Amino acid sequence: MGVGGVGMSAIAKVLIQKGLKVSGSDMSSSTLTAELESLGARIYLGHNAANVNGAEIVIRSSAIPDDNPEIQEARSKGLPVLHRSEILAMLLNENRGIAVSGAHGKTTITGMIATILEMARLDPSVLVGGELVGTGFHAKYGMGPYVVAEADESDGSFLKYHPFLAVVTSIEADHLENYGGSFTNLIKAYQAFLGQLKPGGVAVVGAQAARMLQGQLPSAVTYGLDDPDCDYTGRILRLEGFDSQLEVSRRGRVMGTLELKMPGAHNLENALAASAACLELGLEFSQIKEGLAQFQGIKRRFQLVQHNRERDILIIDDYGHHPTELRAALRAAKEIFGRRVVAVFQPHRFNRTQFLFDEFANSFSDADVVAVAPIYAPPPETPIPGVSSEKLAEAILAVERKPVEAFSDLGSVTDWLADNLRSGDLVITLGAGNIGLVGQALARRLD
Questions:
Q1: In whole angstroms, what is the distance from residue 402 CA to residue 340 CA?
Q2: Which parts of 214-356 fold into alpha helices (H)?
Q3: Between the CA of residue 73 and those of 19, 103, 313, what are the distances in Å?
Q4: Could you check whether the bond before residue 380 is cis, i.e. omega within 30 degrees of 0?
Q5: What is the pTM of this model?
């Protein structure tokens, strides 16, 4: 159910390739559902009780409410209704699972590790929460021993996994509505996740997360940029546009230099995490270097949408929807390109906006102009009184004292951008919802 989502379609694709008969439903068709149909899946548009006929197991995501007619029909028939994480746990736990968790960088690091293993001819099974740029690839069933997947901390589902190798990138006070509003409970969940490693397994933990976990790190190695206290350290050699270079050392010994086709120090840190994970698995540095040289990034992760050369306007799209991610993306945009930065932010969910309101207001220091789109709230979430894009825009203006605009719909954002952009501007759309449509529409308008 919700088979057109990138996470759910990844599971469906792996199950099909594994030899199972798969059907699925979603509210609309997409390139992902078309791919599944080409592989033999039956896809239903809309949710209907009849869609469950003939099924033996029903798989749902957190976005599917209990009153959905397919859920009700499945339960009336006595069919097992499993959360997507339970299927992912079966795949991870019965193999040498590599589970990537943390507040930031999960999708990119998962994609990096998958690319390295694939290039090394280890034929991993892969479930990435985003499509790899240049390939469209995001899932496959492999015959090798490794299963590489994201481990989602947002709803606690990562506690179902017993990986051989676990990565924790960083820990932030996010998704606290699923942890009783307590950051301490979130920390304990990460500790429990790392405590579920298989015998002989290893944890690869970022420096910030290691400090948050306060030494509660069984079988752990740490990584960090220019951090001599970590097992794996990275020294930035070059950051120029979409080309970057990183020197990697393990416990003081230089392993070699990585070349990436991705911008920003945060992506070099992601590459360091992927390198540490693969070195711990026993791969050679040359294999890691080759794999990362081929990796072009994940769609909607600082992805270049267009460089309109006539007006010299850059359009970049980024999935960042947490204050730390916003600051990292905007810092990269300003430092790497040195242009006037026009940030177009779509807050994601009312409850996250409420929890992190003050942090969001303080996240736009590297933007020169800020446009705030309507809050994206997928069902079953409902509005919270006093939480709105307009209120957030007022708070940003009070902090930054720079041009800030709030909008009631995405079309108005595109119109405003087309009328107000200057030659040499960099426009970056930010958010986990459908804000990428604004960048695409703007690119068409500029053409």
A1: 12
A2: 265-280, 285-294, 323-337, 350-355
A3: 25, 36, 52
A4: yes
A5: 0.78
- State how beta strands 341-345 and 426-430 pair: parallel
- Give the pLDDT band of residue 168 (cuts 50, 70, 90): very high
Q: What is the dihedral of CA 150, 152, 156, 157, to 10 degrees?
A: -50
Catalytic residue among 13, 33, 70, 106: 106
The catalytically annotated residue of 73, 118, 150, 280 is 150
Would you say the C-alpha torsion 256, 303, 112, 266 has a positive or negative sign?
positive
Q: Would the CA dihedral through 84, 85, 89, 92 be positive or negative?
A: positive
Sign of the four-CA dihedral 6, 322, 160, 282: positive
Which residues, other chains included, contact 45 with Cβ-Cβ below 8 Å and sequence gap of 6+? 25, 26, 27, 28, 29
Catalytic, out of 107, 115, 233, 324: 107
Highest mean pLDDT among 3-17, 115-129, 272-286: 272-286
106 catalytically annotated: yes
Closest to 23 in 3D by CA, of 8, 10, 12, 11: 12
* Degrees, nearest 5: CA angle 113-94-25: 80
How much of the chain exceeds pLDDT 70, in percent? 98
Q: State the pLDDT at residue 108.
A: 92
What 3-state class would DSSP assign to 305?
A: strand
Q: How far apart are CA 395 and CA 392, in angstroms?
A: 5
> Per residue in 276-311, is it b (16+ CB within 10 Å) or e — as a string?
bbbbbbebebebbbebbeebbbbbbbbbebbebeee
By the 8 A CB rule, do 333 and 265 touch? no
The verdict on whether 391 is a catalytic residue reads no
Q: How far apart are CA 193 and CA 220, in angstroms?
A: 13
318 and 329 in contact (C-beta within 8 Å)?
Answer: yes
Residue 18 bears catalytic tag: no
Tokens 């039956």 belong to residue: 42
Alpha helices in 18-149 (DSSP H): 31-38, 69-76, 84-93, 106-119
3-state secondary structure of 88: helix
